[in-house]
């Protein structure tokens, strides 16, 4: 991972970048802005530490598994046991769990040892201390989310690895969030696999302390004809989510419950037509939701279904998926849909079938985490009536679900490194609206 890029690998990366630009329409910044924004910031690459041996855990992150378990994921350069020792006091390990180890190859790259172990049962709203691969030199801690309201989510899409990403992560770290939701485009590795390792190191300080629940975007596909024809290899190997527990057959779409909120993660870049496995799974999953247990439903996609930015207009992942699945979300009385892809922020009113609808979900585009392609600064004017707030700035969102009926949404802009609350609104759950009963 620390060696210079070899010539053949460099050629593959250049070919892959050209292929990505041609096939995925990756957008850069364009247009003007209503006020002077700070300029772009350079890419960040977090290198491996020379002080750690080959069995030292790195790229540690945690994710939810069921109501009272957590998956711990980490990587070592060399062989190490896939064990996690954990307890409720620092330096002590009353419990231990053993998981599994995998690796993957991508062109000339071979990953480190990717370990994961599921630990629990765990108590809610409790800090646990843990060590991976029995490494006494690195002790981590995380806090489990509550099982009852209130609960707070951080929401950030299209993170990447730039100076703006570091600012976004710093601002998220200053909040008291319980779970992070990421609607796709994580590392922007774009075929160059060491960037996945860098991303894992970059987010470890946060991702090792709170569960990060993610879905994939177009930058996770990483499919190259003839060279690497399988999509999502790196994403699936490194960011395993609890899809089996929700009856899904794919790591690309799944759902989970946490503290009265049912969260659905969908895959914009896998089949979504009515005959697809994802569509049938979603139909079944929404039909099983008990609104007395989870009064709120949030859905995450990558390509937005509603978008008044000039970037990413007319894409099948937006138009086709909306045509196939919007009816399911409306009948399921989904409260909010978060999307990424467009490198800007936009909040819509409650909407269905292109028009304002009091029983439809709020749609929010939040692809502004800090990607290396820049902001999507140009909007369609005049703004459509259903678009309430839009701005091309980097930032993140926070969703505080206070109780079964009310939640506060805020969007925080990264303006000259200051965390500025630029948009805020209260929502009432659809399950508490008599007019929206189904």
TrEMBL record:
<keyword id="KW-0862">Zinc</keyword>
<feature type="compositionally biased region" description="Basic and acidic residues">
    <location>
        <begin position="38"/>
        <end position="48"/>
    </location>
</feature>
<dbReference type="InterPro" id="IPR015914">
    <property type="entry name" value="PAPs_N"/>
</dbReference>
<dbReference type="InterPro" id="IPR025733">
    <property type="entry name" value="PAPs_C"/>
</dbReference>
<dbReference type="InterPro" id="IPR008963">
    <property type="entry name" value="Purple_acid_Pase-like_N"/>
</dbReference>
<comment type="similarity">
    <text>Belongs to the metallophosphoesterase superfamily. Purple acid phosphatase family.</text>
</comment>
<dbReference type="GO" id="GO:0046872">
    <property type="term" value="F:metal ion binding"/>
</dbReference>
<keyword id="KW-0732">Signal</keyword>
<dbReference type="InterPro" id="IPR029052">
    <property type="entry name" value="Metallo-depent_PP-like"/>
</dbReference>
<feature type="domain" description="Purple acid phosphatase N-terminal">
    <location>
        <begin position="57"/>
        <end position="144"/>
    </location>
</feature>
<keyword id="KW-0378">Hydrolase</keyword>
<protein>
    <recommendedName>
        <fullName>Purple acid phosphatase</fullName>
        <ecNumber>3.1.3.2</ecNumber>
    </recommendedName>
</protein>
<keyword id="KW-0408">Iron</keyword>
<keyword id="KW-0325">Glycoprotein</keyword>
<dbReference type="Pfam" id="PF16656">
    <property type="entry name" value="Pur_ac_phosph_N"/>
</dbReference>
<dbReference type="GO" id="GO:0003993">
    <property type="term" value="F:acid phosphatase activity"/>
</dbReference>
<feature type="domain" description="Calcineurin-like phosphoesterase">
    <location>
        <begin position="151"/>
        <end position="345"/>
    </location>
</feature>
<feature type="signal peptide">
    <location>
        <begin position="1"/>
        <end position="25"/>
    </location>
</feature>
<dbReference type="InterPro" id="IPR041792">
    <property type="entry name" value="MPP_PAP"/>
</dbReference>
<dbReference type="Pfam" id="PF00149">
    <property type="entry name" value="Metallophos"/>
</dbReference>
<dbReference type="InterPro" id="IPR039331">
    <property type="entry name" value="PAPs-like"/>
</dbReference>
<dbReference type="Pfam" id="PF14008">
    <property type="entry name" value="Metallophos_C"/>
</dbReference>
<dbReference type="InterPro" id="IPR004843">
    <property type="entry name" value="Calcineurin-like_PHP"/>
</dbReference>
<feature type="region of interest" description="Disordered">
    <location>
        <begin position="31"/>
        <end position="58"/>
    </location>
</feature>
<feature type="domain" description="Purple acid phosphatase C-terminal">
    <location>
        <begin position="360"/>
        <end position="418"/>
    </location>
</feature>
